[in-house]
Amino acid sequence: MMDEAPRGNDVLARAEGDYGRVRRRAWWRDAVARLVGRQNQLLSYEAVKQSLKLGGPIYRGVKTVPVAQIIGSVDRYRDFDNVFLPKQDNTAGRWKSIARAFYSAVDLPPVRLYKVGDAYFVVDGHHRVSVAREQGIDFIDAEVQEVISRVPVSADLKSEDLIILHEYRRFLGRTKLDSIRPDQHIRFTVAGGYQQIIEHIAMHRYYMQLGQQREVSEAEAVADWYDQVYLPTVEIIRRYKVLDEFPSRTESDLYLWIVEHLYFLREIEQGTSLEDAAADYAEQYSEKSIKKLMRGFKHAFADNDKMPLEIVKAAQAHEQFMAETRLAELRPAQNILCTSDLDYTRLRDHIKKHRYYMGLDLKRDVSKDEAVTDWYDTVYQPIVAAIRGRNLLAEFPGKTETELYLSIVAYLDQLRQTEGSTSAVEAAIDYAGQFKQHPIKKILGGLLSMVVGVPPAAGVPPAAGSESSADVPHNPQAER
Length: 480
Description:
The protein is of the alpha/beta class. The protein folds into three domains: 8-146, no CATH class; 161-287, no CATH class; 348-479, no CATH class. It is 57% helix and 7% strand. The chain has helices spanning 8-36, 45-52, 92-103, 126-134, 161-175, 177-180, 193-212, 218-239, 251-268, 274-285, 289-300, 309-325, 327-330, 341-362, 368-389, 401-419, 424-435, 439-449, 476-479; strands at 43-44, 58-66, 70-73, 111-116, 119-124, 139-146. Helix 1 crosses helix 3, helix 3 (92-103) packs across helix 4 and helix 7 (193-212) crosses helix 8. The radius of gyration is 26 Å and the shape is flat. The model is unreliable at 437-460 and 463-480 (pLDDT under 50).
């Protein structure tokens, strides 16, 4: 586990320090979750079992299991948060003893897990998993019992996904599509999609019977709908790379939306093809942030021959930022968007500083991808969640969420200089309270930020583009 195990008081001090750190992080994550109304506890195995109608476990022996795929608990899901940070002090001694064993290079018995799809749930060994995650251990020995699920379960399963998986299980029970077409891959990101598919199949069966003048079995209708309707639509989605415009969606989502869009277009022009409908839907409703922005500017400057240079530069900077950080791949649901190319430079600086402090905190090298995702999850997203939860964009109509994030981080530095310890979410709330009803202060803040060497005065919101040291969160742990 370690090249040279420390001894005595050093081991005790490290274990104590680690526990204090994880409890502070657990408290902060819980406070943020409560503020924004987000779930922050481990998945309950019983909830998954009930939703998916799971049977009994099958013993698979001792395996090496990725720690990142352990996402829930059989009976202690309330005692740890969703990254296995302890939420109570009742078993502090147990956590510290495991940490001491880690530093002393003591071999511990395997944990006991239930496996459902690609996800694992702890039966015994919660503290060992918690310490392993804190120490950056990627794999852990586990005694595994597997529970077979009819629907696929991924390692990023969340409690809100259970509704959709429950619908999927019922859909397969009704249509037997997984038996009729074993390679099928119908997946939705929103509830209600599977019921719409059942209605599509019923309508398809009705028209098959009319056309063939005979009774058509449900199994025959399911197979024909899948082969003659669903797959051709998915092939068009793939051929024209429509899914690229909807990074957080699935082919099944787009199938429903494009078919509905086709009916709408045919009311206007009868001969509209499925290809035309797919292309038009992607053009009109792309969920890529930059496409949304460019659509808005296209309408705004419809009478001009050329797009303003600032807009073009912002679009290019967005593309470069996404390519460098791979954020669109690491977090497909991201919605980073700035109207100034300089703001993307500031975001890069935030990530670089976050990576540096992560390395200090974890006492190891941190990869670029790991820093990007951790910054997005633990710094950017909590502030954006506060922005959304309190509808702050309505108070700052000239800003995007990302620009408001930058302004709030800059304001956070001012608060910490005058008031000491202040959380990022507290800064977001205070920023809105201070400035949303004072438009003249926004104007003054923008003017002052243009004067070299003159920072915004007290009571004037700092501009997102100012060169304050607050442009980078100095210590990511303080943001949590």
